[in-house]
């Protein structure tokens, strides 16, 4: 086969593939709040419109006025506008084309996740667990909780979600729906500190329902010179003051607790 003919056929293949991909995108992408779109009608430049989708999904289009295309795929929105132009008696067979300039139905997932960034909402009813899955979930350095910031009913919205409890404690009500413009942040996990007569002093992650004895085990336990009977706990109170206490071994550990294992006197 001549080289020129091969290159020509290859170009045709990629052109067809691109058209198929574009058609699939039109069938799949759902228009939502914040999407910037470019609308044209073949051989009618006066009907060209550049607009951004409002939350209501209603846009004002020449000749037909208010039309709701929110929640429709691009292909369905094209058909709806074309049908309105035809039913209004303006055209026999209008060819409407909508191009997505900038997707607006995106969320930001930040912090300690595997793949932080901006993600398009694949569905208008995406839950926070599904959204975090888009970013690969929390990284090994990530917390069990996520903070969701956005707006609801034109008011600032902020909610701290315990992701693990959704599955461990069946708190499905906390698996809230995320919407366009939401920001999800996963912070570093809470840590406690242990030092003194322990095998491995340092900072460690506070696990769920962790107790003093479990925290001591995380540090490798007391050295031959230490004893669990002489543990001191240093915890900051609501006033920001550090308070010293002698905890029981079953007392829960909190974020930023400091455990000091003292040397045994005997």
How would you concisely characterize the structure shown here?
The protein is 23% helix and 32% strand. The protein contains 5 helices and 15 strands. A hairpin with a 7-residue loop joins strand 1 and strand 2.
Descriptive overview:
The chain has 5 helices and 15 strands. With 266 residues, it is of the alpha+beta class. The chain folds into 3 domains: 3-102, wza like domain (wza like fold, 2-Layer Sandwich), CATH 3.30.1950.10; 106-186, Outer membrane lipoprotein wza fold like (Roll); 191-263, Outer membrane lipoprotein wza fold like (Roll), CATH 3.10.560.10. Strands 7-6-10-8-9 form a 5-stranded mixed sheet. Strands 12-11-15-13-14 form a 5-stranded mixed sheet, covered by helices on one side. The protein has a 3-stranded antiparallel sheet with strand order 2-1-5, with helices on one face. The chain starts with a helix and ends with a strand.
What shape does the CA trace take?
Answer: rod-shaped
> How far apart, in Å, are the first and last alpha carbons?
93 Å
How many whole angstroms does the radius of gyration measure?
29 Å
Assign the structural class, choosing from mainly alpha, mainly beta, alpha/beta, alpha+beta, or little secondary structure: alpha+beta
Number of helices, where a helix is a run of at least 4 consecutive DSSP H or I residues = 5
* Unreliable sequence segments: 13-24
Question: Based on DSSP secondary structure assignment, what is the total number of beta strands?
Answer: 15
**Rounded average pLDDT:** 86
CATH topology of the largest domain: wza like fold
Largest sheet: 5 strands, mixed
Architecture per CATH nomenclature, i.e. the level-2 architecture of the largest domain = 2-Layer Sandwich
Indicate the proportion of strand residues. Answer: 25-35%
Subcellular location: Cell outer membrane
Organism: Methyloradius palustris
GO cellular component, one term: cell outer membrane
Protein name: Polysaccharide export protein EpsE
